[in-house]
Every structure is written in structure tokens, then in C-alpha cells.
Amino acid sequence: MHVVRRTKNRLWRWRNNPLRRPEDVLEAWVVLAVWVLIAVGGTLAGVLTAHAADDVFAQQRAERSAVRAVLLTDIPQGAEASAGSSGGRTTAKVRWTTPDGSTRTGTTLVDAAQQAGSTVKVWTNRQGDLTTEPPSQAVANIDAALLGTAAALALSGLAVGVGRVVRRRLDRRRIDRWGTQWDLIGPLWGHRTG
């Protein structure tokens, strides 16, 4: 049995060939540009996004601090099922002291089943306003990595999409040119079937 081996020339668009059209050369450059953009641009976008996100998370950890607050209302055991609850926690009114010594009250998430007068931990910014807890270093690292990966994939997807659109237009131009050339050459053949 005779096995036919097919040779692959991956760089066929770059070879000097009398049948090579200008669209083929342009397509070769588009493919190369898309791959470079995916490899270099995607990596760069991912790294820059991850570093920027890590800086934001570090700034949040630096600007926010935990303070003790006094719970102003009782929170019954079943309160976590109410609206405004999150993961066994519910909103409640608390009182805390700001860094400048003034006393403030506000609403924040606290654990359920606590009595009025209990001490709870809340997070404030430098102005003493209530804020959310900053992400820990481990959570910040994971979030930064996910954001960097998403940025790299988004840029890569955009590059592939633009490359595909350009290649379709080049294919359309090739088909139109083939049609025009066939209209010129076809009648010279003389004999048609059909």
C-alpha cells in the first residue's frame, strides 16, 4: 500500500511565488501581527492590569483600619434571613469614634444574634467614614491574577476578532478578483460544458 505524505510549508505565504497575490502577503502580515499582539500585548496587558489591581488593593489596606464600634440595636437569631443580609450577617446601627475623637453613628453589616451594647469590629477610612473591609493579601493576589488574566484574554480576543475581519475582507477581495479574471479568461477557452 502506497502512503501519500503531504509536506507542510508553514511559511508558504512568505515564499517568493509567481501565484502569490498582494492579498496573500498582506494576510501573512496580518497573521503575524495578530500572533505578536497576542503574545506580547496580551502578556503586557495582563501584567500591567495585575500590578495596577495589586496597587489598588494595597492602597485600600493602607487607608482602611478596623475600629471598635458599639451595637445600638438587638439583632435576633433569625435576622440574617432579612433583606440586606449577607452570609449570616445583617445590617445594624452602630456607634464608633473617629480618629479626631468625634462620635458617629451609621449602618453596617454585623454578625447575627448579638445584643445592643455589644462591641463589634467595623472598618473606616482615614476620614472616619464606614467602609468595607479591605481584601487580605491572599485574596488581593488572587483577584489581581484574575483581573490580569481577564485583561490578557480580552486583548487577545480583540486581536483575533480584528484579524478575522481583516482576513474575511481579504478573502472577499480575492474572490472578486478571481471572478473578474475568470470573466476575462473564460471566453478564451471556447468550449464550455453545461
Keyphrases for this structure?
alpha+beta, 2 domains, transmembrane helix, transmembrane, MT1774/Rv1733c-like, membrane
If you had to describe this structure to a student in words, what would you say it looks like?
This protein is of the alpha+beta class. It folds into two domains: 21-58 and 138-180; 65-133, no CATH class. Helix content is 49%, strand content 17%. Strands 3-2-1-4-5 form a five-stranded antiparallel β-sheet. Helix 1 packs antiparallel against helix 2 (137-189). The longest helix is centred in the last third of the chain and has 53 residues, at 137-189. The protein starts with 21 loop residues before the first helix and ends in a 5-residue tail after the last helix. Residues 81-85 have low confidence and may be disordered.
Topology:
Blueprint: H1 22-63, E1 65-71, E2 89-97, E3 103-111, E4 119-124, E5 130-131, H2 137-189
Antiparallel strand pairs: 1-2, 1-4, 2-3, 4-5
Helix pairs in contact: 1-2
**Main sheet: strand order:** 3-2-1-4-5
* Low-confidence parts: 81-85
Helix content: 40-55%
Q: What is the ordering of alpha helices and beta strands?
A: HEEEEEH
> What's the number of extended β-strand segments?
5
* DSSP helical segment count: 2
Query: How large is the radius of gyration?
Result: 33 Å
**What would you call the shape?**
rod-shaped
**In what range is the share of β-strand residues?**
15-25%
The number of domains is: 2
Distance from N terminus to C terminus (CA atoms, Å) equals: 38 Å
Largest sheet properties: 5 strands, antiparallel
Mean pLDDT: 87
Category from helices, strands and their pairing: alpha+beta
